[in-house]
Design a protein that fits this description.
Radius of gyration: 15 Å
Distance between the termini: 34 Å
Largest sheet: 5 strands, antiparallel
Shape: globular
Number of strands: 11
Number of helices: 3
Length: 157
Amino acid sequence: IAQNAQTEKRCREQLDNSLRQWSMSSITRDVAEWAKSRRMNPTFVQGDFDGEGRADIALLIQNRSEPSLEYPERAYSSLVAVCLSTPTSVTLHLLKEPYCSDLIARSPKGDRYYDFETDRRGTYPSDGVKTVCFEKASATYVYEKQAGSFRRIVDGD
C-alpha cells in the first residue's frame, strides 16, 4: 500500500506540472451511492495497466480548479490521468475527451469484451481503465506498449 501512496503522490506532482489547474472530478449523488454500496472510489482506480507487474493508478479529474457537476461543462473538462509506475517514478498519460465521465473502474486483464465501435470481440491484454456513463454506456482504455498510448474499446452501450 505504501507503493500506491507513493505512486499517487508522484502522479499528483506530474499533474501539477502538466496542467495549469486541475481538481478531482465531481460525482453525482446516484454514482456516489452506487460506488459506496460496492466499496469503490468512483474517481480512483488501481491496476497493472501496462502489464509490467507494478501497481499503476488512474484518476478521474477535471481540467479546472473547482469541479463542476453541470453539463456540458463537466463533460468538456473531464480527463482521465493514468500514471504508470516505473521503478523510480511515474509516467503520466492524459486521456482527453473520455468516452464517459461519470466514474472510472478497472477492467480486469483476461476479461472478454465486445467492442461496439469495431464490432469485434476480444480479451483485455492487461488491466484497463473503464470510463462509465452511469447506467448507460462505457469504454475501456487499454495500453498498447508499441504505440506508447491507450486504445479505446467501447464495451458498454
